[in-house]
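The pair is set out directly below:
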Amino acid sequence: MAKHEHGKMDITEQEKTFNGFIRFVAWSTAIIIGVLIFLALAGA
C-alpha cells in the first residue's frame, strides 16, 4: 500500500461538483423566495 501524503490528491472534480451544488442551492433559494413574494402579493 502506498504511503499517503497529505495535500497531494487531485480534487478538481470534487471542487467542480461542490461549486455546482452551491450554485444550484443559491438559484433554488432565489426562485423559492421569488415565488413566495409573488404569492404574498397576489393574495394567495
Notes: The helical segments are 12-42. The CA atoms of residues 19 and 41 lie 33 Å apart.
